[in-house]
Design goal:
about 170 residues
């Protein structure tokens, strides 16, 4: 069972994305990252991205950086998917919240090494294990944020408190 799950994540998400990012010429990937930085933040984040890309390229770590970026993107995608499903269920139903919240609280308070040892025993030391550790670390927080957002969106507009610092509260 664990190998099937590992193969699904590795073969379906990780390997194709890593092949795409590693096989593209460095200048194409660099241009894409620069464009994303500029579109999301403007010229200052784009300038920082350019300097970081130059350092990575200059030290010969471009391929390793693409592997790391791939693992980060896959972990983020998995966290978002899991958090959306669990968070919406928790936000809409009190029973789901009562059932899921103790597990989330437990994972949030347990040190990472406690769940890393069983993960290493089940999956061996690999990219997949690193992704699962990141997912186990981030899912509780993201799920609680989604649940709070869903709960907050159910209130009618007249009952939503406006933040005191915003002009809407005056």
């Amino acid at each position: 069972m664990t190998n099937a799950f590992k193969d699904f994540i590795s073969g379906g998400l990780l390997n194709p994305l890593q092949s795409l990012m590693s096989d593209l010429p460095w200048w194409v990937m660099a241009a894409v990252l620069l464009a994303v930085a500029y579109l999301l933040g403007g010229w200052q984040p784009a300038a920082v991205t350019f300097v970081c890309e130059a350092v990575i390229l200059g030290t010969g770590l471009w391929n390793d950086a693409m592997v790391t970026l791939t693992m980060t993107l896959v972990a983020t995608l998995l966290v978002m998917l899991i958090a959306m499903v669990l968070g919406v269920a928790m936000g809409r139903g009190r029973r789901a919240d009562t059932l899921i919240r103790p597990f989330l609280d437990g994972f949030q308070t347990i040190p990472a090494f406690v769940y890393l040892v069983p993960a290493l025993a089940l999956f061996a030391a690999s990219r997949f294990t690193a992704i699962m550790a990141a997912v186990a670390y981030a899912v509780p927080i993201a799920t609680k944020l989604v649940a709070d957002g869903v709960r907050g969106s159910h209130r009618p507009r007249s009952r939503r408190p406006a933040p005191p610092a915003s002009p809407a509260g005056r």
